Amino acid sequence: MTVDSTERTMAESVYQQVRRRILEGRIKPGTRISIRTLAQSAGVSTMPTREALKRLQFEGLVAFDRRAVTVTALDADEIRQLFAIRLTLELLATEWALIRLDDDGIAAMRAVLDEMGDPGIAPDIWRELNRKFHQTLYGYAESRYLIELIHNIWDRIQPYMAIYATAPDNLDDARRDHEHMYRLMVDRKLDELLDATRHHIETTAEAIVGALGAPDGTDIEATTNYEELSVDSFHRMIESGETTSAELTSWYLTRIGDIDSAGNPDGLRLNSVVTVNPAALRDAARLDERYARTGKLAGPLHGVPVLVKDQGETRGIPTSFGSEVFADYVPDVDAAVVRRLREAGAVILGKTAMCDFAAGWFSFSSRTGHTKNPYDTDRETGGSSAGTAAAVTANLCLVGIGEDTGGSIRLPASFTNLFGLRVTTGLIPRTGFSPLLHFQDTPGPMARTVTDLAAVLDVVAGYDPTDPYTGIAASNPDIGNYAAALGDVNADALRTFRIGVLSDAFGAGPDQEMTNAVVRSAIDRLGRLGTEVIEGLRLGNLESWIEETSLYTRCSKKDIDEFLAQRPGAPAGSVDEIVAAGRFHPLTDLFGDLVSGPDDPDDDPAYLRGRLRQEEWRRTLVSMMAQARVDFLVYPTVQVPAPTRAELEAKRWTALDFPTNTVIASQTSLPALSIPAGFTDSGLPVGLEVLGRPLSELALLRFARAWELAATPRRPAALTS
């Protein structure tokens, strides 16, 4: 295929997309759109876009200049002229058609009228049925030329019929008119039918003229607000023709530039997105083209723009692992999770910020600096999946992928009012994610809703031959179908659960009391909603359990070094090399501590003791749940609210003494879900962690969904809304 023919094909695609959006009223008459924005939303260059606009201008639907296009807006006199032409043509078509109309045609129109009579019908569906009703009749006129002329007129007035159909009173009047015309057709009363047709068309014209206001002149980006969008609602919008993946992708990219980019002095400069995928719009446009051709979604995440923590390798997109050393490292192969996302139809929108090699609880990174918390930009977002957390809560993507070794999904989810899931180690493949501790590492989803969390988990979970740990994912019949399992959940489902409150996971101190108050309030509410709450469960010696099972400084260096050794083109080959060069953020203190670890952990007796102690802790927790006959243990995800940047710079805490409870699940390889519990008096989000037995993800999601429906805990960040 030559370049010219390729551009003609692309121009045809743009022409069809834009024409459809104008005729369906999704781009309002009078809207002015930059050609660059229009090209981006279609996922093509400006050249084929201009060719498409020439055709639309010839048809009278748009006018365009060097930089922008304006959708044609008709005044009242022009509307009346078009409807007068329509009336003349349709009266002639009615006269020719009625004498040939048979019982099949009568039955077909009756079926259409019955569908139009649905009081809850969507305006766009009503308009399609309205056109189908008249087409059925006029088809009996047996005049191709007359039908072509009628279709041309209909196309010119379709944007205004979209305005007409949004008013319930107009639809009620139209239903009565159509029923009256139908009875006259059945009775073959031509003169009365012509009068009824004239009345209907003239009153429709006047209703539209009355509804016309001054053109708002807004750009395409302002016509739809996608904040707090879910996967299900997005797919419904695609299927109804309200939007496309390219439009949503373009919206997110614009929003990233507006409020996240460090290069925009007028924005919040959240600094959550490290790299934008240069092919994102093109990938989205391909999915749109496929959907237009087949009418079917490409997969469960069709067209969904996803941001991935920069810990996971992405083919053709720089992957830095949070390190300035790897700023220009571009992998040749996707991580297993990224590959599964693409296969499910997702659009990889870009990569998100993290601390150096995920070695910490905070966002400080030699690659990106600090990521701001959207609820309070002086506060920490939490790490190491800081960028994903900030981006998802600020509506810079639809869903996000984080990674959790010691709590790096749940801790930032707690600080940003999100649902963040750490799965049983091995349920999701880790291949292609830089490790911190191979026996604790797991990628996972972060989302604004539980249903989105489940939709992503369905895609990324399961056995993968490249990761032996995922053998566990083939061992239980409850694995998979997570989204479907939420279909019958309602708020009353909370009555079916029994939870145990792990009392020694509540900290003491002024900051801890702020968190405790929010979590206690949430637990009290669960009790009022019917959940059976068992108070007073104590593990005993929690600090000792944590310290004796913490193995980062004993094993992480070897895990990272082995990962880098498998990448001969990488710009550095070891932790020692990076630390010796001083090329890590000084506040990512754990990374600097890793150099003291043994070259081979198996030579360190303390390593073996720690691994055995982890197994013992897991058995202790599972036994505690069994003895108390509870489904889950609950406690604050983190014992304190999000700290300020100044507190962290003053080194109030280090990575190894920060009071996070997320290590309970991480250092026992148990699944845990951080759910939004509420807000402190100063407006900081607080998370409630729910700890389950091995492979209890389905039950965790059902519990969280019931809480979500009962409590509506999600509150968008005002700074980014």
Detail the topology: elements first, then pairings.
Layout: H1 3-23, E1 32-34, H2 35-42, H3 46-58, E2 62-64, E3 68-71, H4 76-98, H5 103-116, H6 123-138, H7 144-165, H8 168-186, H9 190-211, H10 231-239, H11 245-260, E4 273-276, H12 280-294, E5 305-309, H13 336-343, E6 347-352, E7 372-373, E8 376-380, H14 386-393, E9 399-404, H15 410-415, E10 419-422, E11 442-447, H16 450-460, E12 498-502, H17 510-528, E13 532-537, H18 542-548, H19 552-565, H20 575-580, H21 589-593, H22 605-628, E14 632-636, H23 645-649, H24 663-666, E15 672-679, E16 685-691, H25 697-711
Parallel strand pairs: 5-6, 5-9, 12-13, 12-14
Antiparallel strand pairs: 1-3, 2-3, 4-6, 7-8, 9-11, 10-11, 10-15, 14-16, 15-16
Helix pairs in contact: 1-3, 2-3, 2-11, 4-7, 4-9, 5-6, 5-8, 6-7, 7-9, 8-9, 11-12, 16-25
